[in-house]
Records
---
Amino acid sequence: MSSTAKADILARLRQRTHTSPPPERDFSVLEARQWTPAERIERFRQHLESVQGEVIRTTESELNQAILDRLSRSHVRRLLLGRNSPFQAGLAAAKSGDLELHVYDQPIETWQSELFNEIEAALTTTLGGIAETGSLILWPTPDEPRLMSLVPPMHLAVLRVDQLHDTLLQVVREQRWSQGMPTNALLISGPSKTADIEQTLVFGAHGPRELVVFLVDESGSGA
Amino acid sequence: MTDTHGAVPFHPNVRTALDNPQIRGNFRRAMDGLMDKRRLAFDDWELDKLRTLGSAVRLNALHHLPELLEQLDTRCRANGIQVHWARDGDEACALITDICRRRNARSVIKGKSMVSEEMELNHHLEQADIEALESDLGEYIVQMAEETPSHIIMPAIHKNTREISDLMHDKTGTEPSLDARYLTASARAQLRERFMNADVGISGVNFAVADSGTLCLVENEGNGRLTTTVPPCHIAVTGIEKVVPSLDDVAPLLALLTRSATGQPITTYFNMISGPRQPDEQDGPEEVHLVLVDNGRSEVYQDEELAETLKCIRCGACMNHCPVYTRVGGHAYGTTYPGPIGKILMPQLMGLDQTPDFPSASSLCGACGEVCPVRIPIPQLLVRLRQESVDGDSLHPAHVKGHGVKRGRLEPWIWRGWAWMHRSPALYRLGTALAARFRRLTPSRLGGWTDYRRAPRPAATTLHQAIKARRTHRRPS
Ligand code: SF4
């Protein structure tokens, strides 16, 4: 039945006659949006902070401590890491006794209620950022599954400054997204929010209430 | 709401809405805020150029619609997404119900989807004994109130905090509160359980990308991501017009959509789904389905001018800027899509005979056309539909379903007489002279026109007489 539906719909669409070709797509208005590295950082920070995202600038060598400090400020005791997380060894070595590190290394079905009810924060890597809108790019992987950036009330993400791009269009083109996408890819621009009750903006709807981005600057100009 | 056996009772609805200061206040405040936010969001943009690009992207996609749909179908299948086609809403509902049955699904969690409203999916699922729960906060409120959305972006915009608090108290036992944060937190807590236990998640789609087989979803709350990630089966349902060639095309549309809708540069989440969970992945749905719904769109597609309607990216800006919508609210329209986009789309989907008042429920002020991010000439299409509803253009025969519904028996003769009189100078002069002479005999009440205005009265002298008098008066000097 559905194959005839397909044939019917396509046949009807093909009956349309076109009198003229469609107009050219001129992307210059988007391509013109470019910034210097310093402007990019500033723009990213401003946009993210305007929606209650937090940006902490740090360096590679201070990253672990910055993460631990931020966690202890919110009294986080159960942190979720990805499998083979690049942060695991460093955090395990430097952490104090009351922080538990959990690793997302089994199918969700086996520990769903623990993830939903007990994990307080998750730490993920990112594929980069977009200065124009203050967005993080995440491509969840078997090591860093989708729900890490969604279910725990706090999401911490590490972004390297040299992976900060100007616009989504630039990223899509340079990284050739059209050639193949992962099962799920995301742009994340702040903690979850809603304004469905009389236009009052509330942060922390169904996703995280807090989003903390560690912006890592190799050149050491972190402060 | 929509009475399936008769036309939408627009005028009585309008009367009720205008007499309700609560509704008018709620909409006025919300729309004023949204207009300001949109303006600010485009502050550092060359907006005209961006809108031109948005329009070109949509026109290109529509130009190649059948090929793009086939490509989308092929790419999605290659990615492991199961693709289904439905000629109308009932067929789509049946397909979705079948998928749910096959999985023995009892409970479905839903993300926001206007096309599912269009085909009354929740109702169909209920009849099959499948419980469907809306998870977008606005939709959740509207569902609890057993109402329909009054705005396509903000479904519960017609309710104020007190009304929502009372509703949640009645239905879920939430403590009454005027704190939106508290109410939101309470809804979050109630829905968490439901996300964990849902058998199927159903969502809409904002853009379907043909070359990579990707479904893009725009949202702020995270409910859309939970809907498409937590349940073992995800069904995405979309109108066939939502397909674009590639992710490049998505960039300008996304830039336009969120700024036009709520004045945000981007939503919290932009969710791109290109396949079900792979064997080595720890989460995500094991099955992903895409249901492509026609439901009248391929008919709209046939006419070059009217097909512009299909460029719509459902941002809601035309509503937010519409002086009629702002005063009467979304429910007065009694259809899935209200406001300017509703006024051009619904007559084409349902027939002009079902929506006879829609094309004329506009002052043609032009605001909708000016703000539309993809440059749909809404006022021009309203005029076209007015012509269609009276079969008024003999050179271009009307073909929208239910056309000619407003064609009276007398009116064509009056216009024919009018044209005849205007073609003959002598008759024209005689006519205007008679009108000037007997001006006091013209009626002072002219139906609805004189409810709020005075009846027009011909001038005491005709224009011809006035000019003639002026010439004779000047000649001596
Ligand atoms: S018609 Fe234009 S302004 Fe209205 S919802 Fe569609 S895209 Fe937005």
Note: Residues 155 and 211 of chain A are 5 Å apart (CA to CA).
---
Amino acid sequence: MERKRTYIWEFPVRFTHWINFLAIILLSVTGLYIGSPFLHPRSGADYSYTMGWMRFLHYIAAYVFLMMIALRVYWAFAGNRYANWRVFFPFTRQQRHDLGDATRFYLFASKKPPYAAGHTACAGIAYLFLFVMFLWEIFSGFALYQVNDPAFFHLILGGWLLSLMNVQTIRFWHHLVLYFIWAFAILHVYIAVYLDQAEKNGLLGSIFGGYKFITGREWE
Amino acid sequence: MGKANEGTIYDSLRKRGVSRRDFMKFCSLMAATLALPSGAGRIAEALEKAKKPSLVWLEFQDCAGNTESFLRASDPTVVQIVLDILSVDYHETIMAPAGKQAEKSLDDVVKNQKGKYLVVVEGSIPLKDGGVYCTVGGKAAIDTVKEVCGGALATIAIGACAWDGGIPAANPNPTGAVGVKDAVKGITLINLPGCPANVVNLTATVVHYLTFGSLPLTDSMGRPLFAYGTRIHDGCERRAHYDAGRFVRQWGDYGHQNGWCLYEMGCKGPETYKNCPAVRWNQGTSWPVEAGHGCIGCAAPRFWDTMSPFYRRLPKVPGFGVETTADDVGIGVAAATAAAVAAHGIIRAVKHKTEEEREEK
Ligand code: HEM
Ligand code: SF4
């Protein structure tokens, strides 16, 4: 079967993907420290500023993360058709059909891998769900930030949540969703490796270089 | 003393032997609590002219903790001043008359001083089953509140229970308890939540009224900003330890002995707004966090439900036992995903192998 080297993931998609990857690691480590400090001074004469630094890094990473999400949302309107916001919703008949195929494939009921040049319908929905989790982390994070440091900017970005929910509930879900994002990451990497092997189209490489090797029989 | 002062608060204090110096000290304390720069002079002037306002104190579903707090000033002059400013005409716990006579003194105030007296309400008001769960002198709390608060100049809801139902209203709220703000509408009301509220804040609220003729500014939850506008965590003397990452990890450990931060022991100072670190308790002797116990967030909305477990940072996971933390559940979810992925991978490998064998045949 002839394969065509095709540019799928434009630079902004790859850039936000990898910066988010780094930001989430940093947010997770510093967030878990804020939640239950796992470093402890060896003596009372330890003049560290551990919590201060952890919070500082968490906020820096949070802002970077926010910018990346904003950029990706912009690109969902400005980018190519693989990056477009429509791929995250199963609007077309083809996509819904594809969903059934994918379910059968993942349950070993079929050998035909879900095939798409960009995101499969299944992946689209999964990323939509991830996006909701990201939005929640941003809103709840800024709500908690508003408690620490009231500012108009923090109020808009999430402080308004405080008038809808109790602060402890917000904190609880801010903490718990971290693990949901991890669970997502585990699935995400597994499926990427799996499909890369099944489709042999350079899927894994595409998030680095942007190109996939496609046959043209993918839905578009 | 001139005739002009006769019958005023200042007059009565002088007659009881409170010195000018003690009086001025008290005025300064009030000015500082209310955050009024150079307000002490104005307060003194006002108290020199003001007559004692009549005040009735109603207790419903309560533990009398606010009353205790109110009477807990250890310096006799302060007790005198407070009792003089808050001239209590009716208070079930501390008044001399009992039974019918006691109820009569309440009726007298309500009838004769309509629109001129102050009411302090302590405790929550049960609404379920027609309010039968709390009656005083045969009258349901809700009826008393409507009548007494309805005819008052202003109502001060003191303590968590009078504010939003507090402990009686905690899940599952068997008596349908609510605070004053939800029991009667359309009254002039100020709330001093806390379990208990601080007598300094109560006195300062009344002094503000006597000085300026209005109640102090409040936040969106009806609490005066001077007392509930700052976060415990921002005024806490252990805060430097927090920033440095020095935490108490067990009661009595090295950190606890050395005054480190109580964050890991479940301190709710980071989410609670009250002036405890500044006004403190028992006349500035100490306050919970200084005494070595984390803040339990008693001035926060629905604190019994929202701030518990008191010795944990985060709420418990709904539907799981008390010992289950968000970390347990989260790690469980992530581990289950990893296990599912691993199982999927193994099935895949096995299938792949059998297919290869089949092809070979
Ligand atoms: C993927 C994104 C994020 C993850 C995984 C994450 C994770 C966490 C975790 C686990 C905690 C500890 C919660 C606790 O137990 O109290 C935390 C705290 C916090 N996070 Fe995030 N976070 C994320 C994004 C953000 C964002 C966008 C902000 C916005 C400024 C933010 C602001 C905060 C704040 C202010 C706290 C401190 C809460 C406190 O004062 O107790 N986070 N984060
Ligand atoms: S003891 Fe509580 S209020 Fe004080 S710094 Fe630590 S967490 Fe904040």
Note: Chain A has one domain: 4-214.
